[in-house]
Write a structure and sequence with these properties.
It is a single chain. The chain has two domains: about 280 residues, no CATH class; about 90 residues, no CATH class. Helix content is about 45%, strand content about 15%. The protein has 18 helices and 14 strands. A hairpin with a 2-residue loop joins β12 and β13.
């Protein structure tokens, strides 16, 4: 079945369906969304809630809290070093792969964050002991660690809200976020947080599984795109090729408008049979629809408009999608929703319907719509 030729329009339509953005394909709760998307970025909690709500319905916030409290989801530093909501199995696979890059052992990392590889190794051991059977706030964890004179020089970094020294601990499977009273940041051990935590698997097992999960939501795609999504291109090319080889005939080479890519063989018939349809969607900030392929993926986001979506300090703007392509941004101020298209605005009726779906997903009143002048 090699050599299957697909169009970008087919691929984008298929991704919308696979990512539960088709009105007839809602996911069965936050865990199903997190599993299908191989994680939902949760650096901004409200953005994660909106991403799930658009794919499930207005009860997303409460369902998310319940799934986190009962360990069906983990919140931890994962893809690209950012906080994500993941089901335990996907979390274990992603953390094993990210950790395998050993970025904290590189001299540049030590110079930036002040911790040597030996100190990180000792932090892993100490935090693994401190958090077993316990939930500690950031302040409590930092205080317990810096009581050891060997960690005292790291006090400022350990207390930092950026969590730079805690990320390698998450990637080595000894720390994740824990629900805490009063909204304070707190941590526990993944094995205590979730009864389904499997422990970190071998890399050669985790890699093929996570690659297949990625292609199931954001494919067809190349290995470089998978690596950029996961680790900002920290994995060796030979390792990535090994993951693909391990999948064997589960993978098929395809072309998308002539460009080579990999697809899961089980999806080929569905991809080939996909007929693009006209659609308009309003997605929230940091939505996986663009984070999966990345903001440099020109089939999703025209290069000329990337700066309007990927903004300063890593902010990813709310998205206007037209036929699966990012065609503008939007913002809401109380009852007024302002859409700013890059070029031509979509039909008024289609845009109004998208605003109604956004309101239904969040359980709020339908906003008044305003279309600003094109930014192009």
């Amino acid at each position: 079945m090699g050599g299957t030729e697909l169009t970008t329009a087919q691929v984008l339509e298929w991704r919308l369906r696979r990512q539960h953005l088709d009105a007839d394909r809602s996911a069965d709760g936050p865990v199903a969304v997190a599993r299908r998307l191989a994680g939902v970025q949760a650096q901004v909690p409200s953005a994660a809630e909106l991403a799930v709500a658009l794919r499930t319905g207005p009860d997303a916030a409460g369902a998310l809290r319940a799934d986190l409290a009962e360990g069906r989801l983990l919140r931890t530093w994962a893809q690209r070093g950012t906080l994500h909501l993941l089901d335990p199995r996907t979390a274990a696979d992603a953390l094993a792969l990210i950790g395998s890059a050993r970025t904290w052992e590189k001299p540049a990392w030590t110079r930036q964050f002040g911790a040597t590889p030996d100190q990180v190794a000792r932090l892993v051991e100490a935090v693994g002991e401190l958090l077993r059977g316990a939930v500690l706030t950031r302040e409590e964890l930092a205080a317990a660690l810096t009581a050891d004179p060997g960690f005292a020089p790291l006090a400022e970094q350990l207390a930092s809200g950026w969590g730079a020294l805690l990320k390698p601990l998450a990637w080595q499977g000894v720390l994740c976020h824990a629900p805490a009273p009063s909204g304070r940041v707190a941590f526990t051990h993944p094995a205590d947080h979730s009864p389904d935590w499997p422990g970190l698997p071998p890399v050669d097992e985790a890699g093929p599984r996570l690659l297949a999960a990625y292609l199931g939501a954001y494919g067809p795609a190349g290995l470089d795109r998978f690596d950029a999504w996961l680790s900002r291109n920290s994995l060796r090319k030979g390792v990535l090729k090994g993951f693909a080889a391990a999948l064997g005939d589960r993978l098929t080479d395809v072309t998308v408008d002539g460009a080579p890519a990999l697809a899961l063989t089980e999806h080929l018939d569905e991809l080939a049979a996909t007929t693009p349809t006209a659609s308009v969607h309003l997605l929230g900030a940091f939505d996986q629809y663009v984070l999966g392929p990345g903001t440099k993926a020109t089939e999703v986001l025209p290069a000329a408009h990337r700066a309007r979506v990927s903004r300063t300090a890593g902010w990813i703007a709310p998205l206007l999608l037209v036929d699966g392509r990012i065609a503008g941004t939007w913002e809401q101020d109380g009852p007024l929703l302002t859409v700013t298209p890059f070029e031509q605005a979509p039909p008024a009726a289609a845009l109004a319907a998208a605003a109604e779906r956004l309101a239904a997903a969040t359980g709020t009143a339908v906003p008044a719509l305003r279309v600003a002048g094109p930014t192009a």
